[in-house]
Every structure is written in C-alpha cells, then in structure tokens.
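Example A, followed by Example B.
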Amino acid sequence: MKTHHYSQQFLHPQSSLHHGKDLGITADLNALRAAQDKMESLRDGTPERIAAERDYIKNANIITEKLGNTLITSDKTNALEVNAALAEVQGGISLIKDESIRKEGAITVGKANVITRGFRINM
C-alpha cells in the first residue's frame, strides 16, 4: 500500500517550497520519496527492504540536518514549508520495520521535533 507523501500538497515538484522559496532540499525530498516508494514495495525483513530502509533514513537525516540550519529556522516565514517536509520525513520513518534502523529513526524524529517546536516558540 502506497502512502501519501505529506508535503506534496505544499511543495511543487520543481521547487522545495510553494511560495517560490528554495530551501535547497528539492533533490533530497525526491530521493526520500523514491526511497519510501521502494521501501513500501518490498517485503519486511528482506535484505532489500533493510537496504531501502537504510537509504530512507540516510535521506531523512540529510533533510533534517539541512532544515535545522539556523539560517532556515531563524526565519519564521519558513515554518509551513519546513514543518511539511519534516512531517513527510516522520511519516516514512513510521514505516521502518528493522529495529536498529527504527532506533536511528527515533533520533531523527527527535531532531525534527526540536526544529518544529522552535518555530512554535518563535512565532
């Protein structure tokens, strides 16, 4: 079953943001979506699925790190786009089945939550 990519309603395929801003994550989001699609197409526990989960978490970490940059988080006008992208990251992490990769995913979710809370505090 294919899940909905959460931030697609906010993010154009050609740009990582809907207001014409570019946070530099378009290629990363495309890679994340491709990794999620591949992960969902594979049976749990297979070596191929585990490799796809590792690829997903790698892309999720890249996006989370980029969006945690203070140049992005200090501008509250980025909140909608950043939160949409982080929701997409977190949604895919919930699909990971391998326990060791899930633990790494929990760290990424924690970082994403800190970024999201930062916008709420600064608004």
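Example B, a separate protein, is given below in the same form.
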Amino acid sequence: MTCRSSPSTRALRCTRPFRWDQVLDDAAWAIDAKAPDYACAWHLRGHLRRLVDIATAGSRIKPLDRYTNNLVAQARELLSSRAPTTAPEAVAYLRALGQLTSELVDQLIAAHLVSPPVSEQDVLSAFAPPAPALSPC
C-alpha cells in the first residue's frame, strides 16, 4: 500500500485496491460474533478507518447526505473510544464495528464514492466465451 499525506486525501491516494470480500466477510462475522476476536476487530477498525477517509475525501467533492454524515460521526466516535475491557463489551464493540462498516459501505456505494463489490462469478462470466446461438425450430 502506498498511502501518503493527510487523512483527508489518504483515501484518494491509496493504491491498494479495496478487498470487498474481506471487508464484507469481516463485517458479517462481527455482527454475528458470540465471542470477542481481537484480530477481527483490528481488521474492522482498519476497514472502517479507510471508509471514513473515503467519505471525508468524497464530501469535499460532493456533499454527503445527513445519514451518511451521521454514520461517519458514529464511526469516528467508535474508533476514538477506549478499548473494551470485558468480553461482553468486546462483543458489543465488535458488533458495532461490523454494523457501522456494513452500513457505511452501502451508503458510499449509493453516493457513488466507491464501486459496488463484484462477485467472482461476475468476473468469470465476463471472460467466458459467448453461448452458441440457438437456431429457431
């Protein structure tokens, strides 16, 4: 990854592609978490931080709606909060990270600040040979 400069422009200058499969898998796992997983929380914090950077940089190009601005504010608050100290708090924190990440992804896609995730099947079908034409009976 090659990220330089301030957080407001970091999202636009990162050359590492966004791994949607990893982001969405981590968010889904966190929402259903039954026990704290510090590695997943670490990854989700990174995903959420990057999404906040994208939203911040994108808001300079075009204003975000109120709901997206509220999500960004919640994400900043969650990212700056103190680490949970008990297992139930850690699970709640992990679920909040997952929920915010998932919702912010949806909002950034709707605002056209990020491209929607592409499934592996969509990529493979783009390179598949065309189906033979059926002759009329």
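On Example B: Residues 36 and 87 are 6 Å apart (CA to CA).
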